[in-house]
């Protein structure tokens, strides 16, 4: 079962209608590139292994003469080379896209490139696993070229192993004792999972990067990671420490205009590409949370990003530059009504639009603060019209229960991606901005912070893996529905039993609303411990902290006034139609009302309830929903293996208890602040 955990949704378990399916699949496999390590060769291996597991079919490699019916996998070009006389309508494929046709006993899986062929093979296996192998034609292209994941892996921690910042699945799969692990089996297994959901690059180290990663020995190690990824078409990316010229290169400055600094970075890039010719590029966190960056040297953020981008250009690499730029020390000093960390990204980047090299992509967290349970879409997406942008999502549940709570995130991502920013009063869905469509950008897309670890479940929880699966599928096709992709993932992970599928759907779809209810509703942000762990309730830490994550709660009122007329001005950063909506209490969606407005606890919501009563009710409701989770899960006893059953149950029981801790802690805190008792007598009357 531990092995099954590692295989996640690629278990290739037998399906109920295996015999019928097997009869429809050709028995000969034609692999159009058999070079060891090529993605097409990997596709061939997956097809053999997969069909053996799923339907018990042993595929035979093709001999000298080709049978009329075969399962063929390769690129379109390889196919046309091998079959000059075969005529067929060429599908319209873009980079990484694939085409599958199943007809007349022939199966063709063709990619625009080798990676696309592998994606096609995984897609075909997923269809068969879901019981579908008969006549079909699929043409599938990714919406966005950048479909990356970020790992926040440290090279070491206080002990000996590589820790993972905000990682809840054990030590790093890449680093150990300040070096790259000798055994990179898990890196290859991770790449396999990622390829099966269309992810094309992994940034392997923490955005809070370590400069010693640039030593020749560590560069050799990084090349070994890239080698482990390559058969799966996954490229390696690196986070850089902006101050490396000083910290590692012995220079007296890291000024991006200094010639020796530019030469230092070009040398680093050349050394990396000599070892990893297909490296994806860099990720840079600069001038953020006390770290140095171009602003330290009176240069603009664009000056900094462009310096890295230029070193990458001859290799086709990309510089992902993070928009998570703010100075918390300054914010701490200015606890004025106007101070607002949420304003920082637009203030820094707005004037730089169009000033970036073409291979720079600005990586923007979905909301303006930091992965809260609910945030409005970052307004920066509407400001960058001449620069590629990518949305940063978190698969690792930093503020969302750290995988000890079940929180299925796809519904939240869907709401964000569907949000219409109405730039110039034209339809401007976030998904169309990050696909590059809205502003005609060629480089743009998705970055997901995943933070898997050595744990045999990868993320520390079996059910949390649906978030990773959904992330890849939504980055490929943003219209993917949260329920649909969940059903698919459940079938592949737990089998076809209708009750299993139904129970996991009920729990998962109820989980984000429940978590929001018991951890921070009405857009007040996740009322967690803001100072350090970001875990468990601590509403008291939400004000006066140096991080600029504030709720401005006092004895009478709560919420950040972010209006233009009276508050921090954040609402005014949106295009006019959206700005007008958030400016007024009446038109702000209530699930964000305290994000944008400072209101008395007695303010009456559309439901007729006061804000304080809504708080009490929501926390009771959310925790009551979490109470039902273990009982619902228990109905699956005997329907899934005992190990996974117990593993999940343990967490759900914990969540049910912890939801009560959340409920009571928050309700009591606001009762003590406001002195207003609960109308239903649950809070304040004992
Ligand atoms: C959050 C998170 C940090 C992380 C930072 C970032 O603040 O808690 O661990 O380094 O975001 O995204 O850079």
TrEMBL record:
<dbReference type="GO" id="GO:0046559">
    <property type="term" value="F:alpha-glucuronidase activity"/>
</dbReference>
<feature type="domain" description="Glycosyl hydrolase family 67 catalytic">
    <location>
        <begin position="132"/>
        <end position="458"/>
    </location>
</feature>
<comment type="function">
    <text>Alpha-glucuronidase involved in the hydrolysis of xylan, a major structural heterogeneous polysaccharide found in plant biomass representing the second most abundant polysaccharide in the biosphere, after cellulose. Releases 4-O-methylglucuronic acid from xylan.</text>
</comment>
<dbReference type="GO" id="GO:0045493">
    <property type="term" value="P:xylan catabolic process"/>
</dbReference>
<keyword id="KW-0858">Xylan degradation</keyword>
<feature type="domain" description="Alpha glucuronidase N-terminal">
    <location>
        <begin position="8"/>
        <end position="124"/>
    </location>
</feature>
<feature type="domain" description="Glycosyl hydrolase family 67 C-terminal">
    <location>
        <begin position="460"/>
        <end position="682"/>
    </location>
</feature>
<keyword id="KW-0119">Carbohydrate metabolism</keyword>
<comment type="similarity">
    <text>Belongs to the glycosyl hydrolase 67 family.</text>
</comment>
<feature type="active site" description="Proton acceptor">
    <location>
        <position position="398"/>
    </location>
</feature>
<keyword id="KW-0624">Polysaccharide degradation</keyword>
<dbReference type="GO" id="GO:0005576">
    <property type="term" value="C:extracellular region"/>
</dbReference>
<feature type="active site" description="Proton acceptor">
    <location>
        <position position="370"/>
    </location>
</feature>
<keyword id="KW-0964">Secreted</keyword>
<keyword id="KW-0732">Signal</keyword>
<keyword id="KW-0326">Glycosidase</keyword>
<protein>
    <recommendedName>
        <fullName>Alpha-glucuronidase</fullName>
        <ecNumber>3.2.1.139</ecNumber>
    </recommendedName>
</protein>
<keyword id="KW-0378">Hydrolase</keyword>
<feature type="active site" description="Proton donor">
    <location>
        <position position="289"/>
    </location>
</feature>
């Amino acid at each position: 079962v531990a092995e099954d955990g590692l295989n996640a949704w690629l278990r290739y378990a037998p399906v109920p209608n295996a015999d019928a399916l097997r009869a429809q699949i050709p028995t000969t496999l034609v692999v159009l590139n058999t070079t060891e390590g090529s993605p097409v060769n990997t596709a061939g291996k997956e097809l053999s292994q997969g069909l053996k597991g799923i339907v018990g079919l042993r595929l035979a490699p093709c001999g000298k003469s080709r049978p009329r019916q075969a399962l063929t996998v390769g690129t379109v070009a390889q196919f046309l080379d091998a079959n000059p006389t075969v005529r067929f309508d060429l599908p319209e494929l873009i980079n990484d896209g694939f085409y599958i046709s199943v007809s007349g006993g022939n199966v063709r899986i063709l990619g625009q490139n080798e990676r696309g062929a592998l994606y096609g093979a995984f897609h075909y296996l997923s269809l068969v696993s879901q019981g579908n192998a008969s006549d079909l034609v699929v043409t599938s292209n990714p919406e966005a070229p950048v479909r990356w994941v970020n790992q926040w892996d440290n090279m070491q921690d206080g002990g000996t192993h590589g820790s993972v910042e905000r990682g809840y699945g054990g030590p790093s799969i890449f680093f150990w004792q300040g070096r790259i692990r000798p055994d990179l089996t898990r890196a290859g297994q991770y790449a396999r999972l990622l390829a099966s959901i269309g992810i094309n690059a992994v940034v392997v180290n923490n955005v809070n990067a370590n400069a010693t990663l640039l030593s020749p020995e560590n560069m050799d190690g990084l090349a070994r990671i890239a080698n482990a990824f390559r058969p799966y078409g996954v490229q390696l990316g690196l986070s850089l420490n902006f101050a490396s010229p000083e910290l590692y290169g012995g220079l007296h400055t890291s000024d991006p205009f200094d010639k020796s600094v530019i030469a230092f970075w070009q040398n680093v890039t050349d050394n990396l590409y000599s070892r990893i010719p297909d490296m994806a590029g860099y990720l840079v966190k600069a001038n953020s949370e006390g770290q140095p960056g171009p602003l330290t040297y009176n240069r603009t953020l664009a000056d900094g990003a462009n310096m890295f981008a230029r070193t990458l250009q001859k290799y086709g690499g990309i510089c992902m530059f993070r928009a998570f730029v703010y100075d918390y020390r300054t914010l701490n000093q200015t606890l004025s009504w106007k101070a607002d960390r949420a304003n920082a990204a637009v203030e820094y980047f707005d004037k730089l639009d169009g000033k970036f090299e073409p291979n720079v992509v600005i990586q923007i967290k979905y909301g303006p603060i930091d992965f809260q349970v609910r945030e409005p879409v970052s307004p920066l997406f509407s400001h960058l019209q001449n620069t590629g942008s990518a949305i940063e999502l978190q698969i690792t549940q930093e503020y969302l229960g750290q995988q000890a709570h079940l929180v299925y995130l796809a519904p939240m991502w869907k709401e964000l991606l569907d949000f219409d920013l109405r730039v110039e009063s034209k339809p401007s869905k976030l998904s169309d901005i990050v696909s590059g469509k809205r502003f005609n950008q060629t480089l743009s897309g998705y970055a997901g912070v995943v933070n898997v670890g050595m744990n045999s479940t990868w993320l520390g929880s079996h059910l949390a893996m649906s978030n990773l699966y959904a992330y890849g599928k939504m980055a490929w096709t943003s219209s993917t529905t949260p329920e649909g992709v969940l059903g698919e993932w459940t079938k592949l992970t737990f089998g076809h039993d209708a009750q299993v599928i139904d129970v996991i759907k009920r729990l998962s779809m109820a989980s984000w609303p429940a978590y929001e209810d018991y951890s921070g509703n009405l857009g007040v942000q996740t009322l967690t411990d803001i100072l350090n762990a970001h875990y468990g309730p601590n509403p008291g830490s939400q004000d006066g902290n140096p991080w600029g994550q504030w709720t401005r709660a006092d004895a009478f009122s709560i919420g950040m006034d972010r209006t233009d007329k009276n508050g921090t001005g954040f609402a005014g950063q949106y295009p006019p139609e959206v700005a007008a909506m958030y400016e007024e209490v009446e038109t702000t969606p209530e699930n964000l009302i305290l994000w944008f407005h400072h209101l008395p606890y007695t303010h009456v919501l559309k439901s007729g309830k006061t804000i304080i009563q809504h708080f009490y009710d929501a926390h009771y409701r959310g925790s009551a929903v979490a109470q039902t989770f273990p009982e619902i899960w228990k109905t699956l006893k005997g329907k899934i293996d005992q190990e996974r059953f117990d593993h999940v149950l343990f967490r759900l029981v914990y969540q049910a208890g912890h939801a009560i801790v959340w409920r009571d802690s928050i309700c009591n805190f606001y009762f003590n602040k406001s002195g207003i008792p609960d109308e239903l007598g649950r809070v304040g009357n004992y």
